[in-house]
Amino acid sequence: MTDMTLTHKGLFCGLVPVWLDMNQPECPGVEARGGILGEIWLDIVEGMFGIFCYLATIANPEFEPMYPIRITGEL
Fold it and tell me: Rounded to two decimals, what is the model's pTM?
């Protein structure tokens, strides 16, 4: 755990369960749930999302990627 104040739970890309620090909603802190395996899974999915954004930007220079986090509840 980091020194974040965990306020919410959610999903990253609909696949990775995460804890969120929503004290700054414009830039929330994100931490994977599930220990080291959760962190590894978050890294993999985040890498795939990065590749998608790169390819989408090549295909459409006007594309603006948004970080895909769905908040599922408060703590």
Answer: 0.84
- Angstrom CA distances, 52 to 22, 39, 68, stand at 26, 20, 12
Over residues 13-42, the pLDDT tens digits come to 999 999 999 998 888 899 999 999 999 999
Spatial neighbors of 12 by CB under 8 A, at least 6 apart, are 18, 30, 32, 42, 45, 46, 68, 69
Residues 6+ apart with CB under 8 A from 41: 15, 16, 32, 34
What's the rounded Cα separation, in Å, for the pair 6 and 34?
A: 15
